[in-house]
Structure formats: structure tokens, C-alpha cells
Amino acid sequence: MVTSNNLVKTYGKRHEIPAVDDVSFSVNEGEIFGLIGPDGSGKTSIFRMLTTLLLPEGGSAAVASFDVVKDYRQIRKIVGYMPGKFSLYPDLSVEENLNFFATVFGTTIRENYELIKEIYVQLEPFKKRRAGKLSGGMKQKLALCCALIHKPKVLFLDEPTTGVDPVSRKEFWEMLKRLKAQNITILVSTAYMDEATLCDRIALIHSGKILTVDTPANISAAYPEKLLEVKANKMSALLNALSRFQKVSGSYAFGEYAHVSVNRNEENVEGELKNYLQQAGLENIEIKPIKASVEDYFIKLLK
Amino acid sequence: MEEVVIKTNKLTKRFGDFIAVNEITFEVYKGEIFGFLGANGAGKTTAMRMLIGLSKPTSGSATVAGFDVYKERENIKKNIGYMSQKFSLYEDLTVLENIGFYGGIYGLSDAQIKTKSDELITSLGLQNEAKKLVASLPLGWKQKLSFSVALLHQPKIVFLDEPTGGVDPLTRRQFWDLIYAASDKGVTIFVTTHYLDEAEYCNRISIMVDGKIEALASPENLKKQFNTHSMDEVFYELARGAKRVE
Fold first, then answer.
1. pTM
2. Nearest C-alpha of chain A: how many angstroms from B1?
3. ipTM > 0.90?
4. B4-239 belongs to which homologous superfamily?
5. What DSSP designation does B3 have?
């Protein structure tokens, strides 16, 4: 449904800043595809090239087999785009914004109401309110309605959950699942690693380069080392001790635990580690092997 | 007896009929990392603005670093550091210029600024970037620099408003190393975050729902209290009951 072949985009007077560096991936129809990476890793530039708002400097890309350069008019008709920054008309009301976007795309709210109904009912009590006066969560819902009102084939959501609290984030992802069920292909970018597992497939991206593309489960399984979660009475002392244990190749805090990487071939390293930590004066030590998360994998790639 | 650096009693802020912050009472101790959590719209920002001397409470009382939030707001500002994603450094100034500017605002002498600048640039490993515009730094470095600048005048308390949004997981952990180091030196850290794994790194956390503090304890005790092993569940359990449509 969406393909990117060696896309390149640079910024700066002498093109010295590679924002998107030889990026290739493809997204299947009906899939939720996540671009996972920190701010400044190139996510927005990729989205803007795919939605025909920015010209690529190298490589090519297509959406529904339309080329992003030659066939930009066709692409604009079939994609919905929700930028990271709120970009509706703050002086128009909720209803007026929605009507405006429907009209621009030659449709009406009524025609595609089914698609946005579930989201719009939450906005309805405020339909006369100016968009600029809405709370963050409501702005986000309105922006999503406006991006959906022409029933796009592909939906691009650029960091829709940035700054959103964990409960609202969860609700937002449930909404995406239901849109997917209506056969809309969804590309979503996020800096929240825990959201990776909610996508069908993900691309990990850093400094304009794609590090890997796969399902979250495959990425977790590809973690090259044995991973342990370790808990003790004091986190800072624990991390300190772990960093000095020879057989540990990496350790960092992960919520209430420390995650510790060791060589896969090490036998009984748990026992050794426990003895060592006890000698280091730590108490209530718990050690158990765990499956790596996407975040663990990302950290590994960055190190 | 632990030294109390923030103390509030029934602190309240109303906007017309709307009670943004509803009688919150809590204490924060010296050197503590205190996580201030809540859903969007729960009243965190309003509460924080009262504590940092930017907004006058409607009723109740509070002292921050020993100063009254009604009468001694200028003293509060001098004794705290503040960093948020929205307000941090001047992008069009260099790293050194930013340090000089903030040092000057907080009344440091030229000699002090010079010493502090050297210290800070060495400890952050920014030797090659010292004369570059802040705009050209990666976000993670900006955040670390911004935190260090908030500590320039050696405040007793630093308020961090979602300090780690949008950075990669490795940089996020490096940022927390800086927080731990400051806390070890006795600086109190008051931090808001939407990352629930970061809540685990705090000594104690409070969770606000609809303007009230509905829970306040160490992460471990909160999980015990809610009979769960995950902070996510504690948060969902509390925030799901919210009635406010932000």
C-alpha cells in the first residue's frame, strides 16, 4: 500500500544535515505500521514526503501505487494526515472545521459519519466551541475526525499521542484498532516504545536511518543476548554494582527492575550474579530471565 | 526527622466555578525525587504553577523552600530551578551564551559564571559544542543542558515538567542519571511525567484525579495498596474514575 525506496532528504544550506537517510520500507494494506524513534529521527520528514508535502531529494515512494512526485494529486485524495502540531482552524468551531474539511474533499459529514461517529460523539457536546478553545485531548480527537472525513485509504498519524497521559493513550490505540478493522491502512509515528507492540509491524528509526523493520514479536525474539530482570533493595547501588560485574555486557533501569544482558552461553550466571550482589551488600535480590522488549532492543542498537 | 521543603495545606485554585486544584495537602522532603502524576487535565500544571510562584492560590496555604506562596513569590523563584519541554533554552544563543544569560539572571558574578560554565561543559562533555547555537544540538543534549542550567544557581528544589518527552530510551536513562546525581547532593526533584516506568524511579509519587490527590506513597507501597505488580494498573485504576472531560 505504501512503499519507500531509498528515500533521502537533507536540511541545511549545504545539505549537511541528513534528515532522512536512504530509507526503505513497505506497508501492507490494512496494516498498522509504526515508525518508532525519538524526536529528530526523521519521522515527520518521511511522513511529509509520503503525503506529498515535501519533495524527496533521492529515492522514490508510492502510496497505493501512485508516485509521490508525479501523482501527488491522486495521493492527496486518498490519504488522511494528522500532523504532530495542531493545525486546524482555531477560529472556526468544531463543526465548522469538520464541515470545511469535508467540503474541501467534495464530501459531507453525513456521507462518512459512520467512520467518525464513535469519536465524534465525544466532541458533540462542544460542537459550537472554537477549536482553539478545546483541551488537548479534544483537539486531538477533532484532528482525527478531520483527517478521516473523506474516508481515506491510508491514514498518516504523526506522533498522535505525544504528551498524552497513559489512559488517554490507551483509548487512542483502541480507536486505531477499530479504524484498522474498517480496512484503513495506518502509518503512525511515536517516541513511546511501549506503543510499538500495538502495531502489526514497526520500523525502528534513529538519526534518519531505519535500524530494523519487523513485527514487534520478531524484534523481541532477535535480541542477541540473555536478558535478566534484577531487583534489589536499592536501585542506584544495584546499577552501580551491575556495571562492575564482568559478565554483564549491559545494564540499565527499567521501571522497578534493572535489565541486565549477559552472553547466551553463560551457564548459571544467575547464581553467580546473586552471590556477587549479596557480597556487594545488596538485599532482597530477585533475578529472573525475561523476554526482551522492543525498548531493550532499541537500547541495544543505540549502544 | 526529615527536612520538609514543600508543604501544602488544602491548597486550592478556582477559575470561576471550576475547581482546578481542590484542597491538596502534601509534603516533600529534602533530596527526595517526588513524582507528580495525573491524567491530562487533572490539575498538575495549575498546582505546579502555584508552587513555583507563577499563580496565586485561591485558598489554602503552602510554603516552598520555606517561603509563602502568597507573599514571598519572588523568593520562591530565586530558590527553585524550573525546566519544561516548552520553556528551556534560547535556540539562537550558543551553549555558553545560554549559561551566561541564565547565570546573570540568577545573580551569579562573572567569575562564578566562568567557573560554572567550565564545570558544566566538562561534565556534559560539550567541549566541542560550547560555541555552537543551541538550535543545532540534538534534543537529548538540549534537555541535559537545560536541566544543568536550571541547577546553576544551586536551587533547593528543581521542578521538571515532563523533562524527557520525545527522546530515545538511552538518552532518557542518561537524563535520569543526572536527576539521581542532583538528588544525591540534596537537591529536591519535583517531576511530572507520562512515562509510568519513570514513576518507579521516584522515591514517592502522587497521583492527581480531578483536582485532588487521590494517592500518595512510594511506588512499592502504591502497588501493594492497589494489589498489583504494575504501576500502569495503579494509574489506570485511579485515572479511569476521572469525571472531568479535561
1. 0.87
2. 21
3. no
4. P-loop containing nucleotide triphosphate hydrolases (3.40.50.300)
5. P
